[in-house]
Protein backbone atom coordinates (compact mmCIF):
# COMPACT_ATOMS: atom_id res chain seq x y z
CA UNK A 1 0.00 0.00 0.00
CA UNK A 2 1.36 3.40 -1.02
CA UNK A 3 1.81 5.94 1.80
CA UNK A 4 1.22 9.66 1.26
CA UNK A 5 1.99 12.53 3.65
CA UNK A 6 0.20 15.87 3.32
CA UNK A 7 2.20 18.80 4.73
CA UNK A 8 0.37 22.13 5.03
CA UNK A 9 0.01 24.64 7.87
CA UNK A 10 -3.67 25.13 7.06
CA UNK A 11 -5.89 22.42 8.49
CA UNK A 12 -8.69 23.03 5.96
CA UNK A 13 -6.21 22.53 3.09
CA UNK A 14 -5.00 19.23 4.58
CA UNK A 15 -8.52 17.95 5.22
CA UNK A 16 -9.68 19.00 1.77
CA UNK A 17 -6.79 17.26 0.07
CA UNK A 18 -7.33 14.10 2.15
CA UNK A 19 -11.01 13.90 1.05
CA UNK A 20 -10.15 14.46 -2.62
CA UNK A 21 -7.32 11.89 -2.57
CA UNK A 22 -9.33 9.26 -0.69
CA UNK A 23 -12.10 9.48 -3.26
CA UNK A 24 -9.68 9.25 -6.17
CA UNK A 25 -7.31 6.68 -4.63
CA UNK A 26 -9.12 4.70 -1.88
CA UNK A 27 -6.12 2.39 -1.30
CA UNK A 28 -3.83 5.25 -0.23
CA UNK A 29 -2.56 5.31 3.37
CA UNK A 30 -2.60 9.04 4.22
CA UNK A 31 -1.07 10.95 7.12
CA UNK A 32 -0.69 14.69 7.80
CA UNK A 33 1.86 17.18 9.16
CA UNK A 34 1.15 20.82 9.91
CA UNK A 35 4.67 22.21 9.33
CA UNK A 36 8.11 21.39 7.96
CA UNK A 37 9.63 20.28 11.25
CA UNK A 38 6.83 17.75 11.94
CA UNK A 39 7.10 16.59 8.32
CA UNK A 40 10.75 15.67 8.89
CA UNK A 41 9.77 13.61 11.96
CA UNK A 42 6.84 11.98 10.13
CA UNK A 43 9.13 11.03 7.27
CA UNK A 44 11.17 8.93 9.73
CA UNK A 45 8.16 7.41 11.49
CA UNK A 46 5.56 7.02 8.73
CA UNK A 47 8.01 6.31 5.88
CA UNK A 48 5.82 7.82 3.11
CA UNK A 49 6.33 7.09 -0.58
CA UNK A 50 5.01 10.51 -1.62
CA UNK A 51 4.84 13.87 0.19
CA UNK A 52 2.63 16.73 -0.92
CA UNK A 53 4.51 19.69 0.54
CA UNK A 54 3.31 23.24 0.98
CA UNK A 55 6.12 25.78 0.47
CA UNK A 56 5.16 28.72 2.65
CA UNK A 57 4.92 27.54 6.26
CA UNK A 58 6.00 29.17 9.54
CA UNK A 59 9.37 28.01 10.87
CA UNK A 60 10.90 25.50 8.50
CA UNK A 61 9.52 26.08 4.99
CA UNK A 62 8.71 23.35 2.48
CA UNK A 63 11.94 23.57 0.49
CA UNK A 64 14.05 23.29 3.64
CA UNK A 65 12.00 20.28 4.77
CA UNK A 66 12.36 18.61 1.35
CA UNK A 67 16.13 19.07 1.47
CA UNK A 68 16.39 17.40 4.91
CA UNK A 69 13.97 14.58 4.10
CA UNK A 70 15.61 13.84 0.72
CA UNK A 71 19.01 13.53 2.38
CA UNK A 72 17.68 10.87 4.79
CA UNK A 73 15.15 9.21 2.45
CA UNK A 74 16.24 9.64 -1.17
CA UNK A 75 13.44 7.37 -2.50
CA UNK A 76 10.60 9.62 -1.28
CA UNK A 77 8.96 11.66 -4.04
CA UNK A 78 7.53 15.16 -3.63
CA UNK A 79 4.76 17.27 -5.13
CA UNK A 80 4.97 20.94 -4.23
CA UNK A 81 1.83 22.87 -3.27
CA UNK A 82 2.15 26.62 -3.56
CA UNK A 83 0.19 29.78 -4.15
CA UNK A 84 3.29 31.44 -5.63
CA UNK A 85 3.97 30.68 -9.27
CA UNK A 86 7.52 32.05 -9.36
CA UNK A 87 10.55 30.96 -11.32
CA UNK A 88 12.78 30.89 -8.25
CA UNK A 89 10.54 28.40 -6.41
CA UNK A 90 10.39 26.18 -9.49
CA UNK A 91 14.17 26.31 -9.95
CA UNK A 92 14.84 25.33 -6.33
CA UNK A 93 12.19 22.61 -6.43
CA UNK A 94 13.65 21.05 -9.56
CA UNK A 95 17.10 21.18 -7.98
CA UNK A 96 15.71 19.15 -5.03
CA UNK A 97 14.16 16.56 -7.35
CA UNK A 98 10.49 17.50 -6.85
CA UNK A 99 8.37 15.50 -9.32
CA UNK A 100 5.57 18.03 -9.93
CA UNK A 101 3.72 20.98 -8.38
CA UNK A 102 0.15 22.17 -7.78
CA UNK A 103 -0.85 25.80 -7.71
CA UNK A 104 -3.37 26.86 -5.10
CA UNK A 105 -6.25 26.68 -5.66
CA UNK A 106 -6.17 23.54 -7.83
CA UNK A 107 -9.18 21.74 -9.24
CA UNK A 108 -10.08 18.19 -8.20
CA UNK A 109 -9.16 17.02 -11.70
CA UNK A 110 -5.72 18.70 -11.56
CA UNK A 111 -5.00 17.14 -8.15
CA UNK A 112 -6.13 13.70 -9.34
CA UNK A 113 -4.07 13.82 -12.55
CA UNK A 114 -0.92 15.18 -10.87
CA UNK A 115 -0.98 12.76 -7.93
CA UNK A 116 -2.08 9.87 -10.17
CA UNK A 117 0.91 10.38 -12.46
CA UNK A 118 3.38 10.21 -9.57
CA UNK A 119 1.56 7.27 -7.93
CA UNK A 120 1.81 5.35 -11.20
CA UNK A 121 5.55 6.03 -11.27
CA UNK A 122 5.85 4.83 -7.65
CA UNK A 123 3.91 1.63 -8.38
CA UNK A 124 6.09 0.89 -11.42
CA UNK A 125 9.21 1.39 -9.34
CA UNK A 126 7.89 -0.86 -6.57
CA UNK A 127 7.03 -3.57 -9.10
CA UNK A 128 10.49 -3.24 -10.60
CA UNK A 129 12.14 -3.50 -7.17
CA UNK A 130 10.01 -6.54 -6.26
CA UNK A 131 10.88 -8.19 -9.57
CA UNK A 132 14.57 -7.44 -9.13
CA UNK A 133 14.47 -8.80 -5.56
CA UNK A 134 12.76 -11.95 -6.77
CA UNK A 135 15.37 -12.37 -9.49
CA UNK A 136 18.14 -11.86 -6.94
CA UNK A 137 16.60 -14.49 -4.65
CA UNK A 138 16.29 -16.91 -7.56
CA UNK A 139 19.88 -16.18 -8.62
CA UNK A 140 21.12 -16.74 -5.08
CA UNK A 141 19.35 -20.10 -4.95
CA UNK A 142 20.76 -21.00 -8.35
CA UNK A 143 24.27 -20.00 -7.28
CA UNK A 144 23.98 -22.25 -4.25
CA UNK A 145 23.20 -25.15 -6.57
CA UNK A 146 25.97 -24.06 -8.93
CA UNK A 147 28.46 -24.08 -6.07
CA UNK A 148 27.46 -27.61 -5.11
CA UNK A 149 27.55 -28.63 -8.76
CA UNK A 150 31.05 -27.21 -9.31
CA UNK A 151 32.44 -29.11 -6.32
CA UNK A 152 30.72 -32.29 -7.47
CA UNK A 153 32.13 -31.97 -10.97
CA UNK A 154 35.62 -31.21 -9.77
CA UNK A 155 35.82 -33.97 -7.19
CA UNK A 156 33.77 -36.70 -8.79
CA UNK A 157 34.21 -35.91 -12.47
CA UNK A 158 30.47 -35.63 -13.08
CA UNK A 159 29.52 -34.72 -16.62
CA UNK A 160 27.20 -31.81 -17.25
CA UNK A 161 26.24 -29.88 -20.32
CA UNK A 162 27.31 -26.59 -18.77
CA UNK A 163 31.02 -25.94 -18.97
CA UNK A 164 32.87 -25.78 -15.69
CA UNK A 165 34.50 -22.43 -16.48
CA UNK A 166 31.08 -20.89 -16.94
CA UNK A 167 29.93 -22.16 -13.56
CA UNK A 168 33.05 -20.86 -11.84
CA UNK A 169 32.51 -17.46 -13.45
CA UNK A 170 28.90 -17.38 -12.20
CA UNK A 171 30.10 -17.72 -8.61
CA UNK A 172 32.00 -14.42 -8.86
CA UNK A 173 34.90 -15.90 -6.92
CA UNK A 174 38.36 -15.68 -8.35
CA UNK A 175 40.08 -18.97 -7.65
CA UNK A 176 43.33 -18.40 -5.80
CA UNK A 177 46.59 -19.83 -7.05
CA UNK A 178 46.37 -22.68 -4.55
CA UNK A 179 43.47 -24.62 -3.11
CA UNK A 180 42.93 -27.72 -1.02
CA UNK A 181 40.12 -29.99 0.08
CA UNK A 182 38.74 -30.42 3.57
CA UNK A 183 36.60 -33.50 4.20
CA UNK A 184 34.17 -32.93 7.06
CA UNK A 185 32.86 -36.09 8.73
CA UNK A 186 29.59 -35.67 10.60
CA UNK A 187 28.09 -38.11 13.10
CA UNK A 188 24.96 -39.97 12.05
CA UNK A 189 21.86 -37.79 12.36
CA UNK A 190 23.76 -34.49 12.05
CA UNK A 191 22.62 -33.66 8.54
CA UNK A 192 20.89 -30.54 9.87
CA UNK A 193 24.32 -28.96 10.37
CA UNK A 194 24.90 -28.86 6.60
CA UNK A 195 23.33 -25.41 6.21
CA UNK A 196 25.28 -24.03 9.19
CA UNK A 197 28.59 -25.27 7.76
CA UNK A 198 27.74 -23.82 4.36
CA UNK A 199 26.89 -20.47 5.94
CA UNK A 200 30.15 -20.53 7.92
CA UNK A 201 32.21 -21.06 4.75
CA UNK A 202 30.17 -18.44 2.92
CA UNK A 203 30.80 -15.79 5.57
CA UNK A 204 34.54 -16.43 5.43
CA UNK A 205 34.42 -16.33 1.59
CA UNK A 206 37.07 -19.00 1.61
CA UNK A 207 35.67 -21.84 -0.45
CA UNK A 208 32.92 -23.88 -2.05
CA UNK A 209 30.86 -26.49 -0.22
CA UNK A 210 29.83 -29.67 -2.03
CA UNK A 211 26.90 -31.99 -1.53
CA UNK A 212 26.52 -34.04 1.63
CA UNK A 213 27.15 -37.70 0.79
CA UNK A 214 26.13 -39.83 3.72
CA UNK A 215 28.22 -38.40 6.57
CA UNK A 216 30.84 -36.80 4.31
CA UNK A 217 30.91 -33.18 3.28
CA UNK A 218 33.70 -32.05 0.90
CA UNK A 219 34.83 -28.41 0.86
CA UNK A 220 37.21 -26.87 -1.68
CA UNK A 221 39.14 -24.15 0.17
CA UNK A 222 40.99 -21.33 -1.58
CA UNK A 223 44.30 -20.38 -0.05
CA UNK A 224 44.48 -17.11 1.83
CA UNK A 225 47.76 -15.44 0.89
CA UNK A 226 47.75 -13.59 4.23
CA UNK A 227 47.93 -16.85 6.20
CA UNK A 228 49.99 -20.01 6.08
CA UNK A 229 48.30 -23.14 4.74
CA UNK A 230 48.30 -24.77 8.18
CA UNK A 231 46.95 -21.76 10.07
CA UNK A 232 44.15 -21.24 7.53
CA UNK A 233 43.16 -24.92 7.57
CA UNK A 234 43.30 -25.18 11.37
CA UNK A 235 41.21 -22.01 11.74
CA UNK A 236 38.51 -23.27 9.36
CA UNK A 237 38.48 -26.74 10.89
CA UNK A 238 38.10 -25.15 14.33
CA UNK A 239 35.23 -22.93 13.15
CA UNK A 240 33.43 -25.95 11.70
CA UNK A 241 33.96 -28.12 14.80
CA UNK A 242 32.59 -25.26 16.94
CA UNK A 243 29.22 -25.76 15.25
CA UNK A 244 28.88 -29.06 17.10
CA UNK A 245 27.42 -28.86 20.58
CA UNK A 246 29.86 -29.86 23.29
CA UNK A 247 28.04 -33.07 24.10
CA UNK A 248 27.70 -33.94 20.41
CA UNK A 249 31.25 -33.31 19.20
CA UNK A 250 32.02 -37.03 19.01
CA UNK A 251 31.97 -38.15 15.41
CA UNK A 252 32.92 -34.74 14.00
CA UNK A 253 36.26 -34.77 12.19
CA UNK A 254 38.03 -32.86 9.43
CA UNK A 255 40.55 -34.45 7.06
CA UNK A 256 42.78 -31.96 5.23
CA UNK A 257 44.42 -32.66 1.86
CA UNK A 258 47.58 -31.01 0.54
CA UNK A 259 47.28 -27.75 -1.45
CA UNK A 260 47.44 -27.94 -5.23
CA UNK A 261 47.89 -25.28 -7.86
CA UNK A 262 45.01 -26.00 -10.24
CA UNK A 263 41.36 -27.01 -10.12
CA UNK A 264 42.18 -29.93 -12.41
CA UNK A 265 44.45 -31.38 -9.70
CA UNK A 266 41.96 -30.94 -6.88
CA UNK A 267 40.90 -34.61 -6.94
CA UNK A 268 44.30 -35.58 -5.55
CA UNK A 269 43.76 -33.25 -2.59
CA UNK A 270 40.29 -34.76 -2.19
CA UNK A 271 41.71 -38.29 -2.03
CA UNK A 272 44.26 -37.09 0.53
CA UNK A 273 41.53 -35.48 2.64
CA UNK A 274 39.60 -38.76 2.54
CA UNK A 275 42.63 -40.69 3.76
CA UNK A 276 43.39 -38.08 6.42
CA UNK A 277 39.87 -38.51 7.83
CA UNK A 278 40.27 -42.30 8.06
CA UNK A 279 40.88 -42.34 11.81
CA UNK A 280 38.56 -39.85 13.55
CA UNK A 281 39.72 -40.71 17.07
CA UNK A 282 42.23 -37.82 17.42
CA UNK A 283 41.26 -35.39 20.22
CA UNK A 284 42.05 -32.33 18.04
CA UNK A 285 39.31 -33.39 15.58
CA UNK A 286 41.38 -32.73 12.46
CA UNK A 287 44.35 -34.22 10.66
CA UNK A 288 46.56 -33.16 7.78
CA UNK A 289 47.33 -35.77 5.15
CA UNK A 290 50.95 -34.65 5.32
CA UNK A 291 51.08 -35.86 8.94
CA UNK A 292 50.31 -39.46 8.04
CA UNK A 293 53.31 -41.79 8.21
CA UNK A 294 54.79 -42.48 4.75
CA UNK A 295 53.86 -45.85 3.35
CA UNK A 296 54.44 -46.94 -0.22
CA UNK A 297 56.05 -49.35 -2.56
CA UNK A 298 58.98 -48.72 -4.82
CA UNK A 299 56.79 -48.04 -7.85
CA UNK A 300 56.79 -44.48 -9.13
CA UNK A 301 54.13 -41.99 -8.08
CA UNK A 302 52.49 -41.85 -11.52
CA UNK A 303 52.03 -45.62 -11.59
CA UNK A 304 50.65 -45.58 -8.05
CA UNK A 305 48.06 -42.97 -8.99
CA UNK A 306 47.10 -44.94 -12.08
CA UNK A 307 46.64 -48.07 -9.99
CA UNK A 308 44.56 -46.16 -7.46
CA UNK A 309 42.33 -44.72 -10.17
CA UNK A 310 41.83 -48.17 -11.70
CA UNK A 311 40.99 -49.50 -8.25
CA UNK A 312 38.32 -46.82 -7.69
CA UNK A 313 36.84 -47.36 -11.16
CA UNK A 314 36.61 -51.09 -10.48
CA UNK A 315 34.75 -50.40 -7.24
CA UNK A 316 32.35 -48.06 -9.05
CA UNK A 317 31.74 -50.68 -11.75
CA UNK A 318 31.30 -53.49 -9.23
CA UNK A 319 34.24 -55.50 -10.60
CA UNK A 320 34.90 -57.14 -7.24
CA UNK A 321 37.10 -59.93 -8.52
CA UNK A 322 39.48 -57.35 -10.01
CA UNK A 323 39.34 -55.37 -6.76
CA UNK A 324 40.34 -58.49 -4.85
CA UNK A 325 43.16 -59.27 -7.29
CA UNK A 326 44.51 -55.72 -6.96
CA UNK A 327 44.53 -55.86 -3.18
CA UNK A 328 46.19 -59.28 -3.12
CA UNK A 329 48.79 -58.01 -5.60
CA UNK A 330 49.40 -55.01 -3.35
CA UNK A 331 49.91 -57.28 -0.34
CA UNK A 332 52.45 -59.38 -2.26
CA UNK A 333 54.37 -56.32 -3.43
CA UNK A 334 54.62 -54.98 0.12
CA UNK A 335 55.72 -58.37 1.41
CA UNK A 336 58.34 -58.54 -1.33
CA UNK A 337 59.67 -55.12 -0.33
CA UNK A 338 59.94 -56.12 3.33
CA UNK A 339 57.16 -53.98 4.83
CA UNK A 340 55.81 -55.04 8.22
CA UNK A 341 52.43 -56.78 8.44
CA UNK A 342 51.08 -53.81 10.42
CA UNK A 343 52.05 -51.42 7.61
CA UNK A 344 50.56 -53.70 4.96
CA UNK A 345 47.31 -54.09 6.88
CA UNK A 346 47.07 -50.30 7.34
CA UNK A 347 47.53 -49.73 3.60
CA UNK A 348 44.89 -52.34 2.69
CA UNK A 349 42.48 -50.83 5.22
CA UNK A 350 43.14 -47.39 3.75
CA UNK A 351 42.11 -48.61 0.30
CA UNK A 352 39.06 -50.36 1.70
CA UNK A 353 38.06 -47.12 3.41
CA UNK A 354 38.36 -45.23 0.15
CA UNK A 355 36.33 -47.93 -1.60
CA UNK A 356 33.70 -47.59 1.13
CA UNK A 357 33.59 -43.83 0.63
CA UNK A 358 33.14 -44.28 -3.10
CA UNK A 359 30.21 -46.62 -2.45
CA UNK A 360 28.76 -44.11 0.00
CA UNK A 361 29.00 -41.41 -2.67
CA UNK A 362 26.99 -43.70 -4.94
CA UNK A 363 24.22 -43.79 -2.35
CA UNK A 364 25.01 -47.11 -0.65
CA UNK A 365 24.86 -47.52 3.08
CA UNK A 366 27.73 -49.71 4.25
CA UNK A 367 29.47 -50.35 7.53
CA UNK A 368 32.97 -48.90 7.78
CA UNK A 369 35.35 -51.74 6.80
CA UNK A 370 37.41 -52.83 9.82
CA UNK A 371 39.72 -55.79 10.42
CA UNK A 372 38.71 -57.78 13.48
CA UNK A 373 42.32 -58.50 14.47
CA UNK A 374 45.95 -57.87 13.55
CA UNK A 375 46.96 -60.29 10.80
CA UNK A 376 50.12 -62.26 11.52
CA UNK A 377 50.95 -63.30 7.95
CA UNK A 378 49.94 -62.48 4.33
CA UNK A 379 47.63 -65.47 4.09
CA UNK A 380 45.67 -64.36 7.15
CA UNK A 381 45.45 -60.82 5.81
CA UNK A 382 44.19 -62.05 2.42
CA UNK A 383 41.54 -64.12 4.16
CA UNK A 384 40.31 -61.16 6.27
CA UNK A 385 40.40 -58.87 3.24
CA UNK A 386 38.24 -61.32 1.30
CA UNK A 387 35.64 -61.30 4.08
CA UNK A 388 35.43 -57.48 4.04
CA UNK A 389 35.27 -57.40 0.24
CA UNK A 390 32.46 -59.93 0.24
CA UNK A 391 30.46 -57.71 2.61
CA UNK A 392 31.04 -54.74 0.32
CA UNK A 393 30.12 -56.75 -2.77
CA UNK A 394 26.83 -57.79 -1.15
CA UNK A 395 26.04 -54.16 -0.29
CA UNK A 396 26.86 -53.15 -3.86
CA UNK A 397 24.64 -55.81 -5.39
CA UNK A 398 21.77 -55.17 -3.00
CA UNK A 399 21.95 -51.49 -3.86
CA UNK A 400 21.80 -52.17 -7.57
CA UNK A 401 19.01 -54.65 -7.16
CA UNK A 402 16.97 -51.87 -5.59
CA UNK A 403 17.69 -49.73 -8.62
CA UNK A 404 16.49 -52.29 -11.12
CA UNK A 405 12.99 -50.87 -11.17
CA UNK A 406 14.44 -47.41 -11.60
CA UNK A 407 14.94 -45.62 -14.87
CA UNK A 408 18.71 -46.06 -14.66
CA UNK A 409 18.19 -49.78 -15.11
CA UNK A 410 16.18 -49.17 -18.25
CA UNK A 411 18.85 -46.84 -19.57
CA UNK A 412 21.68 -49.22 -18.82
CA UNK A 413 19.89 -52.12 -20.44
CA UNK A 414 19.02 -50.03 -23.47
CA UNK A 415 22.63 -48.93 -23.96
CA UNK A 416 24.00 -52.44 -23.54
CA UNK A 417 21.51 -53.75 -26.10
CA UNK A 418 21.90 -50.85 -28.54
CA UNK A 419 25.53 -49.86 -28.04
CA UNK A 420 26.20 -50.67 -31.71
CA UNK A 421 23.84 -47.86 -32.73
CA UNK A 422 24.34 -44.09 -32.63
CA UNK A 423 22.97 -43.31 -29.17
CA UNK A 424 22.85 -39.75 -27.87
CA UNK A 425 21.76 -38.37 -24.52
CA UNK A 426 18.93 -36.62 -26.35
CA UNK A 427 17.70 -39.94 -27.70
CA UNK A 428 17.92 -41.54 -24.24
CA UNK A 429 16.08 -38.57 -22.77
CA UNK A 430 13.23 -39.01 -25.24
CA UNK A 431 13.05 -42.72 -24.46
CA UNK A 432 12.59 -42.36 -20.68
CA UNK A 433 11.15 -38.84 -20.53
CA UNK A 434 14.10 -37.28 -18.70
CA UNK A 435 16.35 -34.37 -19.62
CA UNK A 436 19.82 -35.19 -21.04
CA UNK A 437 21.46 -33.28 -18.18
CA UNK A 438 19.58 -35.28 -15.58
CA UNK A 439 20.48 -38.55 -17.30
CA UNK A 440 24.14 -37.54 -17.36
CA UNK A 441 24.07 -36.81 -13.64
CA UNK A 442 22.08 -39.96 -12.91
CA UNK A 443 24.70 -42.09 -14.61
CA UNK A 444 27.56 -40.67 -12.63
CA UNK A 445 25.78 -40.73 -9.30
CA UNK A 446 24.11 -44.12 -9.62
CA UNK A 447 26.68 -46.05 -11.65
CA UNK A 448 29.82 -44.07 -10.82
CA UNK A 449 30.71 -43.69 -14.50
CA UNK A 450 29.79 -41.14 -17.10
CA UNK A 451 27.54 -42.00 -20.03
CA UNK A 452 30.24 -41.95 -22.72
CA UNK A 453 32.58 -44.18 -20.73
CA UNK A 454 29.77 -46.65 -20.13
CA UNK A 455 28.87 -46.73 -23.83
CA UNK A 456 32.55 -47.24 -24.69
CA UNK A 457 32.85 -50.03 -22.15
CA UNK A 458 29.85 -51.81 -23.68
CA UNK A 459 31.28 -51.53 -27.18
CA UNK A 460 34.73 -52.73 -26.16
CA UNK A 461 33.27 -55.66 -24.23
CA UNK A 462 31.26 -56.62 -27.29
CA UNK A 463 34.34 -56.19 -29.51
CA UNK A 464 36.35 -58.54 -27.29
CA UNK A 465 33.71 -61.22 -27.68
CA UNK A 466 33.60 -60.77 -31.46
CA UNK A 467 37.39 -61.06 -31.68
CA UNK A 468 37.09 -64.64 -30.51
CA UNK A 469 35.67 -65.37 -33.97
CA UNK A 470 38.74 -65.62 -36.29
CA UNK A 471 36.51 -65.21 -39.34
CA UNK A 472 35.68 -61.59 -38.46
CA UNK A 473 38.08 -58.85 -39.46
CA UNK A 474 38.90 -55.87 -37.21
CA UNK A 475 37.16 -53.66 -39.75
CA UNK A 476 33.99 -55.71 -39.57
CA UNK A 477 34.07 -55.66 -35.78
CA UNK A 478 34.58 -51.88 -35.85
CA UNK A 479 31.28 -51.31 -37.61
CA UNK A 480 29.50 -54.10 -35.77
CA UNK A 481 30.13 -52.57 -32.35
CA UNK A 482 29.11 -49.07 -33.39
CA UNK A 483 32.23 -47.24 -34.58
CA UNK A 484 32.47 -45.72 -38.03
CA UNK A 485 36.23 -45.61 -38.48
CA UNK A 486 38.67 -48.50 -37.80
CA UNK A 487 41.59 -46.25 -36.80
CA UNK A 488 39.47 -44.47 -34.21
CA UNK A 489 38.20 -47.81 -32.89
CA UNK A 490 41.81 -49.02 -32.54
CA UNK A 491 42.78 -45.90 -30.57
CA UNK A 492 39.81 -46.27 -28.21
CA UNK A 493 40.45 -49.99 -27.75
CA UNK A 494 44.11 -49.40 -26.93
CA UNK A 495 43.26 -46.63 -24.49
CA UNK A 496 40.79 -48.86 -22.66
CA UNK A 497 42.61 -52.20 -22.83
CA UNK A 498 46.23 -51.08 -23.00
CA UNK A 499 46.83 -53.07 -26.21
CA UNK A 500 45.75 -52.68 -29.84
CA UNK A 501 42.93 -54.86 -31.22
CA UNK A 502 45.47 -56.83 -33.31
CA UNK A 503 47.68 -57.52 -30.30
CA UNK A 504 44.65 -58.47 -28.23
CA UNK A 505 43.57 -60.95 -30.89
CA UNK A 506 47.10 -62.38 -30.99
CA UNK A 507 46.82 -62.93 -27.24
CA UNK A 508 43.57 -64.83 -27.77
CA UNK A 509 45.12 -66.89 -30.56
CA UNK A 510 48.13 -67.64 -28.40
CA UNK A 511 45.93 -68.75 -25.51
CA UNK A 512 44.01 -71.12 -27.79
CA UNK A 513 47.24 -72.46 -29.27
CA UNK A 514 48.57 -73.12 -25.79
CA UNK A 515 45.52 -75.11 -24.73
UniProtKB/TrEMBL annotation:
Residues 409-507 form the HTH araC/xylS-type domain. Residues 3-119 form the Response regulatory domain. The modification 4-aspartylphosphate is found at residue 54. PROSITE patterns: HTH_ARAC_FAMILY_1, HTH_ARAC_FAMILY_2, RESPONSE_REGULATORY. Gene3D superfamilies: 3.40.50.2300, Homeodomain-like. CDD domains: REC_YesN-like (cd17536). Keywords: DNA-binding, Phosphoprotein, Transcription, Transcription regulation. Pfam families: GGDEF_2, HTH_18, Response_reg. One of its GO terms (molecular function) is DNA-binding transcription factor activity. SMART domains: HTH_ARAC, REC. One of its GO terms (biological process) is phosphorelay signal transduction system. This is Two-component system response regulator YesN. It comes from Falsibacillus pallidus. The lineage of its organism: Bacteria, Bacillati, Bacillota, Bacilli, Bacillales.
Amino acid sequence: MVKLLIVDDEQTEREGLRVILKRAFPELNIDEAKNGKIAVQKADEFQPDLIMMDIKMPGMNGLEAIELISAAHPAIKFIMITAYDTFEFARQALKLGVKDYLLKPSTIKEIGETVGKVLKEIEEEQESIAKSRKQQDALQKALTLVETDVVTQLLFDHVHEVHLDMLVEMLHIHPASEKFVMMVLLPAGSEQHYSAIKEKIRTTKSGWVGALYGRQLPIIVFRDSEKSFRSQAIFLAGEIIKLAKKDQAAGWFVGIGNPCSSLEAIRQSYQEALIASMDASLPVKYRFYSELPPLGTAEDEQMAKKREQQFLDQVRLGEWEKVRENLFDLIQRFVHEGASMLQIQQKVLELLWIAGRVMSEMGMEIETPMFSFQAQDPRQLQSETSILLEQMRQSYEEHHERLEADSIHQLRQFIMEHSHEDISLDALGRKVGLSPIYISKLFKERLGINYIDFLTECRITKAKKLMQDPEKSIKEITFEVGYHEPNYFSKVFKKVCGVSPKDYRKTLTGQKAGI
